[in-house]
Amino acid sequence: MPTDLIHLKGITWNHSRGFVPMAATAQRFSELNPNVSITWEKRSLQQFADESIQQLAERFDLLVIDHPWAGFAARTGSILPLDEYLPANFMADQQANTVGHSFESYTFNGHQWALPIDAATPVAASRPDLLAQHGLALPETFADLLALANQGLVAFSLIPIDTLMSFYMFCCSLGEDPCQREDEVVSEAIGIQALQMFRELASKVDPACFQRNPIQVYEAMTQTDALAYCPFAYGYSNYARRGYARRLLHFHDMVALTPGGTRLRSTLGGTGLAISAKCAQVATAVRYAEFVASPTCQQTLYFDNGGQPGHLTAWQDAHVNAQSSNYFNATLPALQRAFLRPRYHGHMFFQDHAGEPVRQYLMHGGDERALLRELNELYVKSRAMAQPNSSVDSASLRYERSE
Predict the structure, then answer these.
(1) Pick from 96, 298, 323, 340: CA 20 to 30 A from residue 116's CA?
(2) What percent of the chain has pLDDT over 90?
(3) Dist. CA 16–CA 192, nearest whole Å
(4) Which one, of 272, 277, 288, 273, lies nearest residue 8 by Cα?
């Protein structure tokens, strides 16, 4: 191999939205820079959950990460603070064109640990053909949603991580953001109300939803003709594009709790592009990151190859919306108001363990106060991990991925 050939290795997640745009941008970047070769590998969502970014950064130069890792990154120094490597005007454009809190989600301790190349939050999805077939309109309120669910036409993700993110959503929508105090996830009054509302809805869907992530929900909606509406799941614009699935999905903002009230406020997801602190070719890696996150690439090459851009101009672009059944224009309001969950070192522990107790409650019922106490105990333990003298082995932390 020629000594002047630069090779970078990247790791991303195994979905058309996660892998294909990275492979396409790497190919084009190599064509523009013939001495550079970039290889992307993909891992399942569970494999992402089982290996920390500190471990991945030992073996890869480029990493596609989730923002809950920001505090961990700041603590361990496993990835580079990109604000020290990228031009100030580029970073200013990224911040000015953030989709909701996407740019801020990778900011921690005064540094930028990743570029928001992908933006997502739970949004609503429908099969317009099935709604028309049943003579039904899109639900506008939570009461409308319950009525639609009574007809067996509703599905959403109820695996542990998505259950926890939806619990956050109900709390936010009732007027209280979770995890704002150091000893309590949410007040008892709001927590009980959120849990009871959530359980009322969850009791009306197929129990198979307790085993489905958002991708599996969308596959069930498009591969069968049994489900007409998903009220909230991390959005995938792929399913709004011709030819991707058996049937086309349309995506929407979510319902309001009451007539004329505010709409549900979901929990921000998305992914960011980071560079390992062990990367031996930092200058090249930085140029590639700048290329991928640029507005031109985000609006064209990145989107055209299945990506879900993180740059606001791509969300507002006429071509992008024309090719995705208006996915981006229709769901942007939900992104702009989405809740930014905590990112302190240790919150991944809470995120990894708190979803299952909520899921068990949704399946079997129980004492809401006891459940909230259990969540508070996990939360306080996670907060202790954020302390500089914590004895927790940071490399052992894992989390469940939200999209």
Answers:
(1) 323
(2) 88
(3) 38
(4) 288
Task: Give pLDDT tens digits for 335-350.
Answer: 999 999 999 988 989 9
Whether 269 contacts 99, CB under 8 Å: no
Q: Which two tokens stand for residue 46?
A: 């569970």
Contacts of 307 (CB under 8 A, 6+ apart): 17, 20, 21, 117, 118, 298
Query: Checking DSSP bridges between strand 271-275 and strand 111-112, what pairing results, if any?
Result: unpaired
pTM of structure: 0.94
Q: Are 295 and 317 in contact (CB under 8 A)?
A: no
Pairs from 32-38 (Cβ < 8 Å, separation ≥ 24):
33/284, 33/287, 35/4, 35/5, 35/6, 36/5, 36/6, 36/7, 36/8, 36/284, 36/288, 37/5, 37/6, 37/7, 37/8, 38/7, 38/8, 38/9, 38/10, 38/62, 38/288
What Rg value do the Cα atoms of the chain yield, rounded? Answer: 21
Taking a C-beta distance cutoff of 8 angstroms, is the pair 198, 170 a contact?
yes
Alpha carbons 25 and 143: distance in angstroms, whole number = 45
pLDDT at 34 over 70: yes
Return the half-sphere exposure (C-beta side, CA atoms, 13 A cut-off) of residue 247.
Answer: 19
Tell the burial category of 60 from Cβ atoms under 10 Å away from its Cβ (0-12, 13-18, 19+): buried
Identity at 147, one-letter amino acid code = A
Q: Count Cβ atoms below 10 Å from residue 106 Cβ, excluding itself.
A: 30
Residue 302 near residue 25, CB atoms below 8 Å? yes
In the chain, DSSP finds a helix count (H) and a strand count (E) of 19, 10
Question: What's the pLDDT tens digit per position in 96-108?
Answer: 999 999 999 999 9
**Residues in the chain, total:** 403
Q: Which of 217-231, 344-358, 359-373 has the lowest mean pLDDT?
A: 344-358
> Measuring CA to CA, which residue among 264, 251, 243, 242 is closest to residue 218?
251
Average pLDDT over residues 274-285: 98
Give the Cα separation of 270 and 67 in Å (integer): 8
Round to whole Å and give the CA distance between 311 and 83: 17
42-99, pLDDT tens digit by residue?
Answer: 988 667 656 788 999 999 999 999 998 888 888 999 999 999 999 999 999 999 999 9
Mean pLDDT across the chain: 94
